[in-house]
Write a structure and sequence with these properties.
By secondary structure, the chain is of the alpha/beta class. The protein has 2 domains: 166 residues, Luciferase, Domain 3 (Luciferase, domain 3, Roll); 178 residues, ANL, N-terminal domain (Rossmann fold, 3-Layer(aba) Sandwich). It contains 11 helices and 16 strands. Helix 1 packs antiparallel against helix 2, helix 5 crosses helix 6 and helix 8 crosses helix 9. The longest helix has 22 residues. The chain is globular and about 65 Å long.
């Protein structure tokens, strides 16, 4: 990596290390976040030419942007249409791609010259939000490991979770033929009999197939106290819809795992950090269940008016944007296609933003295409 990239990644890693356990001094954190965000924006404006052109179309540059909130968020379509990287893509240690459920031939790509920042950004929040009450536990994974899908950020995430926090009994149950139901059921029964807490981890829709299998075979489990269930991804692109709260009720019926120990992770290929339900953390610290999502100290999430792309007040529904300091090589500010609303404790994910109501998002995509076609000078 070039010298400027080494310097900027070290600053990001220093920020992650300082705030890996949360924020103690909000004023100090906000000042440091803003300073580093602006420095990253300047770095990306200089070295990421497609992003620079997009910012110029929006009449934004490091001289005019004074707050992290004013950094132009890149629509996630940009990761499909453009090569968004500050370092040469041929030198990337990893290239994470979107699943391509809408258009399999057009996948978004996020290039990682080094996975050092990505791994650090994953590790500490996982401990904070998923395992605040223990150091390690047995982890059973229902989705492919990194060696089966090297272009999947989720596969690396799950492999890291098992490597960092899994006990010696942890294992993956996804092979070349798919989810190994019979083997998983057998291992769950062993954990039940030995009263060993276990955490199930996988993509949300994998659980639908697992629950179908358990129902067809008349299987239920009384998992040990402290067991938990981790899901991610929702049901986008799937032929069958299941309400999330209904799914959590089925978890309780099939595994006797309480809602307070079920957690959903919200992640995106286009980001380098993950965002979590606060269910486990709040129940461990406060004794109640807080379901709003939040991220680590190096991520800020804002809800924008779908027409103007300006921040809106708490309780109003709008389009979600994330500012992720760990996303140093592409664009730290991302405009999603997700709808949400802010609360005092985080934000609620409401689903996909409706196209007819997202005029501001459409304009942003038009500006994106204008910049890609040479609508701004470098």
């Amino acid at each position: 990596m070039k010298e400027s990239s080494i310097v900027i990644t070290e600053k990001v890693l220093t920020f992650i290390e300082k705030y890996k356990n949360g924020i103690l001094n909000k004023k100090e954190h906000d000042q440091e976040f803003n300073k580093l965000a602006l420095e990253l924006f300047s770095y990306q404006f200089q070295h990421n030419m497609p992003y620079k052109k997009y910012c110029q179309v929006k009449k934004k540059n490091p001289l005019t942007v004074k707050r992290w909130l004013d950094i132009p968020p890149m629509p996630i379509q940009g990761f499909k249409e453009l090569t968004l990287a500050c370092e040469p893509i041929e030198d990337a240690e990893a290239v994470f791609m979107t699943s391509g459920t809408t258009n399999p031939d057009q996948k978004g790509r996020n290039y990682h010259p080094s996975l050092k920042v990505w791994d650090a950004s994953m590790k500490h929040p996982f401990k904070q939000f998923v395992l605040p009450d223990r150091e390690k536990m047995t982890i059973f994974v229902l989705s492919p490991a990194a060696d089966m899908n090297e272009n999947s950020s989720l596969s690396r995430y799950l492999s890291n979770a098992a490597a960092y926090f899994g006990s010696e009994n942890s294992q993956f149950f996804f092979g070349k033929k798919g989810l190994e139901m019979e083997k998983l059921a057998s291992e769950l029964r062993k954990c039940e009999q030995s009263e060993e807490p276990v955490m199930l981890m996988g993509a949300t829709f994998a659980y639908v197939h697992l629950l179908d299998y358990l129902k067809e075979n008349g299987l239920q489990f009384q998992l040990a106290k402290g067991s938990r269930i981790f899901d991610t991804g929702g049901f986008k692109g799937q032929s069958r819809e299941v309400e999330m709260e209904e799914l959590y009720k089925q978890f309780h019926t099939s595994f006797q795992v309480d809602r307070s120990l079920c957690i959903n992770m919200y992640g995106m290929t286009e980001l380098s950090s993950q965002i979590y339900d606060q269910s486990i953390l709040s129940s461990c610290l406060e004794g109640d269940i807080r379901l709003e999502k939040t991220g680590p100290a190096w991520v800020k999430t804002v809800i924008l008016d779908p027409d103007t792309l300006k921040p809106i007040t708490n309780g109003q529904a709008g389009v979600i944007a994330h500012i992720d300091l760990a996303n140093w090589n592409s664009c730290i500010a991302i405009l999603t296609q997700d709808e949400g609303c802010q609360t005092d404790n985080g934000f609620k994910l409401l689903g996909r933003i409706k196209g007819a109501e997202a005029r501001g998002c459409s304009i942003a995509v038009d500006q994106l295409m204008q910049s890609a076609l040479g609508g701004a000078s470098i």
